[in-house]
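Tutorial sheet, problem 5. The two components below are modelled jointly, 543 residues in total.
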Amino acid sequence: MAVHAGHEGPQGAGLGLRRAFMAEFAADDGAAEGVDFLEVAPENWIDVGGRYGHSFRALTERFPFVCHGLSLSLGGPTPLDRSLLEAIKHFLNSHDILCYTEHLSACTDHGHLHDLMPIPFTEDAVHYVAERVRVVQDVLERRIGVENVSYYAAPGPEMSELDFIRAVVEEADCLLLLDVNNIYVNSINFDYDPVAFLRGMPGERAIYAHVAGHVREAPDLRIDTHGATVIDPVWDLLDEAYVAFGPIPTVLERDFNLPPLADLLTEVGRIREAQSSGALSRGARGACPSQGRTRG
Amino acid sequence: MARLAPFQRLQRDFAAYIRDPENVTPPPGIEPRRMAIYARLVYNNVESVLANVFADLQEVVGKTTWRAVVRDFLRRHTVDSPYYSKLPDEFLAYLATREGGPSLPPFAADLCHYAWVKYALPLAPDMPDDAFDDDPLDLDDPVAVSSLAWPLQYTFPVTDIGPDCQPSTPPDEATYLIAYRDRHDEVGFMASNALTLRLLALVEAGSPLARSFGEIAAELARPVSRVEAAGLAIVNRLHALDVLVRA
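Model answer (C-alpha cells):
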C-alpha cells in the first residue's frame, strides 16, 4: 500500500528551535524568513509558562511546527506513560502542530535516564515496539513518525538494524523520521555502507528527515551530538536521500555549541538547495533513467 | 514489573551499567569503550542541568563531592518525571529521601530548594489572564494565594549561604520568604515572617480572611480587631504584588 506521508507533515527546510534563538525568531525582522518550519521537543515546552511560554505561543502562531518527542521510551520496559501521552496530545492540538515523531529507542529502565539507549534488534522487540507505536497512534489519533537513532553498541542483535526498522514501521503502520546523520554515524560505528543502508530504508514512509553534525570520538566511532556543523559526507548522503525518495522536508538539528543563528540559516539554505536539485535529479531520472544520478 | 522478555533483560543490564559504571559489570559481548560512551553521555546530560540549577551547592561542596552526589543520584534515584526540565525537582526528592550517600552540609536541602525556586518559578504554568486586579481587598472578599506565589520557610539562611558562609547548625530564627511572579512575569523575592506565612497557609487551605484573622488572633491571644486591621494591610500589600488574588 502506498503511504503518502507528505501531506501529513511539514514542507521545505526547517530548524530545531532552541531557547537561545527565541528572541531572534520573535523579532519578526525577516531574519528567520529562510526557515519553513520549526521543530521542538514537546517535553521541553509542555506546561511552560511565563516569558518563554508566551514567546513560544507567539511563534507557534507564526510558524508551522513539528514535534520530536524525547521521553516516550517506545522501546522501554515500563508501561507507556499515558499521562505524558495525554499531555502531548493536548500540546499538539493546542499549538496546531503538524506532526509528531519519536525515537526508535529506549530512554528508561525503571526510571528515566534522559538519553537514547538502543533497542535490541530482535523479533520480540519488533512486536513489542510496534504495539506501543500503535497505542500511541490510537491515543494521539494520528500517525506518528519513528526515527532511526544513532547508537554506539548493539546488545544481542538477532536481525539487522535495517530489518528491525522496516519490520517496526510496517507492523505499526507508522511513518518514518529519516535521520540521515544517524545513518552516517552508525555506518562508521558499525562499519556498513551508508548509501546502501539509506536505500534500504522505507523512505516512502518518510514524513521528514533530520540532518545534523556529530563528533569524531575515534576513527571508528562517531557520536551524534548535534553540536557541530553538518559535514560533507552527511550532505552527500542527504542528496542521496532526495534522489532516492524525493525532496523530503528536512530539519537541521543543532543543540549544543550554538553558533549565531545566521550560520544555522546558511545550513538550512543548503538543505533547500539540495531539495531543489534533488527534485530535479529525481525528475530527470524519472523521465529518463539513464541520465539519472548514478548510484553508489 | 511484569516478567521481562529476553531483549528486556539485555536492556536492563545495559542501563544498570550506565547508572553505575564503576560497580556494575558491563554487558557481555559489547566493547567497554562503547559502553563507556553511554555512561558518559547519560551522566553529562543529567549533570549539566543539575550543575546549572544547583551551582551554589556545587560551589560550596567542590567538584569531587558534587560528582559523587550526581553519580549517587543516577545510581539510586528513580526518575519518574518524563520531563528533562524536572530533573532538578527529582534531585530535590533525592535529597529529601536519600539514606547514606556522599556527605553533604546540613543546609544542602534548603540551599537546593531555594535554587530550584529561582529556576522553576519563571517557567511555572501561567495564571489565567483575568486572575489579577487592582481593587483593594476587603475582609469579606474571597481570596486565594496565586499559584505563582510560593511561601518559603527555611531552617538555614539560604540567602546568605555561600563559600564564606556555611553554617553547621541552623540559627534560632528560620528564614521566611515569599517568591512570586507577577502579572508581568517579573519574579521577585520578599523577606517575610512566620505570621504572614501562617496567614497564607490558612488562605491556601481555603479559610476566608475573617476566619483566618480570627484564628491567628486566637493563636496570638490578641484582640481580633487589631489583627484584622494589621492583617488587611498585609493582605493588600500582597495583593498589590499579585501574591494574593481575588478568588
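Marking note: Strands of chain B lie at 143-145, 149-154, 175-181, 187-191, 244-246. Full credit if you identified this.
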